[in-house]
Amino acid sequence: MSVLIYIENPNGHIKKSGFEVATYGAKLASSMGTNAIGLILGSATNAGDLGKCGLSKVLQANGLPTNEFDAQSYSHVIAQIAKDHQANVVILSNTANGKALTGRLAIKMEAGSVSGANALPDLSDGFSVTKSVYSGKAIVKYKINTKNKVISVMGNSLQPDMSGQAIDVEQITVTAPTTKLKVLERKTSDGIVPLPEAELVVSAGRGMKGPENWGIIEELATALGATTACSRPVADADWRPHHEHVGQTGVAIRPNLYIAAGISGAIQHLAGVNNSKVIVVINKDPEAPFFKAADYGVVGDLFEVVPRLTAAVKKFKHA
Amino acid sequence: MNLLVCISKTPDTTAKISFKADDTEYNSDGVTFILNPYDEWYALVRAIELTEQNGGNVTVINVGPATNDIIIRKALAIGANDAVRIDTDASDAFTVASNIANYAKTKNFDIIFLGKETIDYNGSEVGAMIAELMDLPYVSYASKLDVQSALSTVTREIEGGEEVCQVEGSFVLSAAKGMAEQRIPNMKGIMMAKNKPLEVIAPMSGDVRVSTQKFVLPPAKSGVKLIDAENMDELVRLLHEEAKVI
Ligand SMILES: Cc1cc2nc3c(=O)[nH]c(=O)nc-3n(C[C@H](O)[C@H](O)[C@H](O)COP(=O)(O)OP(=O)(O)OC[C@H]3O[C@@H](n4cnc5c(N)ncnc54)[C@H](O)[C@@H]3O)c2cc1C
Q: A18, A74, B146, B177: which has the highest count of C-beta atoms within 10 A?
């Protein structure tokens, strides 16, 4: 028995979310009294650091085209390696690719699966996993009834623990199955932490009046090192790109800090952001519903408050 | 083109979320149910558009009890040609996926559509499971789809960007924003929907792999601390010293 953790390495580099799942898998394996094995498909410059999360083995499988994600061939390889190492639990990140793999692996392994776990499993009575449901409005505890289990872990659910020893990466070779899917093109915004992984988010809504005013939001985000987001009508009006749209019908996020300027706080917006640890609301209307869901509130004109906050952040960072 | 769209029923986005039976079941008293927005706005409408352009048939499929017929009729009113309901409770993702795959295996669909997730369980698992059960490629979080005979070009969302992929032959797709524009059913559509075929079929047997133990509501916020709009240094201090997030 063992726990196999599939760690993504986009562009040959493991991100924080990768170390989160490695930590999750290692902690789970230790409470199950078994070994945690990390797996990357293709190389990663920082693969050696994975051992620090408490893994007993790190495998690098070579032979699959990297950066050419195909759920069908990736899940084939992961399931094969799980079998070779008698893994009865597979852990993944709840990323776009991770979600596409979770269901496939569950079928291959005849496993019960939970996608988007928000904490370590509870082993006190069988095997239970919690996750956020109803778009952040509730949390459910699921019991997995099968011997094999597949769990994808929501970003920012636990802090990576890298206090252990770095270990050598073991190279293995796999044969890639033929694939019916080809990646033709890949567009990513470099240097910006993607929203689902962001710890700090600055978001703005219709109170901004128009796309030409977004400079003050970007300046605040830059000063904080935050990622920008927006409400749905803003994305619908093409003031901002669709991938910035957060909420029930957009991206669901759980950053440490969510700053919302000129957003009223409609229930569908809150659904995607109310798992944030700390919420700051800036709105000129003291009756805006968002204040009820906020930790800190500023009643005022965002066109004055936001630049003032940016200046204060800069002062703090330079102090 | 022969297209299948998987649809599900979810509480309205403004519905109150509460639980009953010792917090093991969703309390649907007084709740309005809707067609899951991703299934309706994106998956279904794009499938209909494709058959309008190329000819063909759109079948919608739901796993659930007879009370779900209302959302099935809505999908037919929007423009699906016919419908199938597999008469069992959607106990977990595997139950839904295995029943749909079991049906779809016999029908030669070119593309099987789903929404990227349901707004109640937020699982995003059913599409991947159907694809695996049928040994088909799966493209998730698709925001654009063009079909040229046996070759489809799909844009999919990834963290912080997107990818353009090409898929050969039949496949399963989960649809996200950008795929199509919402369509409001008109009177004619609603009237026609009443006479479109809805086949009810018996489920296959299978075990429930994941069961619900308990629901809890997230802890309520303790109340907002208001900061003077003139004093943003104070907000920064609180975020650093009290909230410890910067
Ligand atoms: C099925 C469904 C799904 C939906 N999904 C989502 C979703 O995923 N995400 C989402 O965001 N919405 C979603 N919505 C829409 C949602 O109901 C709201 O309409 C939307 O969130 C409102 O956006 P907003 O807060 O930017 O705009 P508004 O509601 O117009 O609010 C603007 C706010 O800005 C404030 N303001 C104006 N000027 C200033 C100023 N100078 N300084 C400070 N404050 C100012 C106003 O007081 C107001 O509170 C959904 C709706 C439906 C029906």
A: A18
